[in-house]
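Q: My collaborator sent me two sequences in one message, no labels, and asked for predicted structures for both. Can we handle them in order? The first one she listed is below.
A: Yes, handling them in the order given. First sequence, followed by its structure tokens:
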Amino acid sequence: MDELLERVRATYVRVEPHEAFDAAQSGEVLLVDIRYAALRERDGLIPGALVVERNELEWRLDPRGSHRVPEAGSHDLRVVLFCNEGYASSLAAESLHRLGLHRATDLTGGFQAWRAAGLPVTGPGRGARQRTPGGQ
């Protein structure tokens, strides 16, 4: 698995937490949370990030797809995926590259690195609101 991750990560530049935060603040990227519900409930959310379960990711972000989110209107979309620690998101970014989203990348260290960097997190039970496909 380590060799696979190394090969995948060599195909794009990963993004550090502060860089992702700045890019999201300026509207340059779409942050996408692919963590499963239990982790989001346990640890909270990154404000403004779109929540897309990993098993729906390609369906929701394929610009040609009939089930895509409104934000996924172009193959030029710059997406920063994050999972809990930055492993699953690396593989997911590679999958988006195969769909033609060549600006897709992932957050180095995932949600845990974001939180450790002191960046904004809406904690569970404190009014956390998920921004999900369909506005749910």
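Q: And the one she listed second?
A: Here it is, processed independently of the first:
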Amino acid sequence: MSDLSTSFAFVDPKLICSQEQIYSAIYKTLVEVNYNRMRTRNLNSECVLCLSPTSNISDAFQKFGIKDDSTELICLNFHNNTSDLDKEQLANELSSIVTGVEIEFNDKNLSRFYDETLIRKVCSKVIHYA
């Protein structure tokens, strides 16, 4: 495998209810990198952590990371420069890791996968502990 295999973040969409949630986590990840405040070892794990309402790394991975029984996932790729990126190589790398059908990333498709009950459960725990 190439070094591209280390540049994917895999997220379970059950707790993702909108594109803005992912975009916010990506933005927060890039801010943490820019100010040298990353709490994890790489951009992928930092992005998963940034999705979490808490700062507990293992809790973030348990809730937002993919599991052995995951049937859907959101795949994120961090890279330095799109002009240097070979999109075909990236697609081949991803297809060697993940078997499935690629669908467009939009709110309509996300609405098919998120679990509102689970989202309420996760958010209510944070509100009670705060």
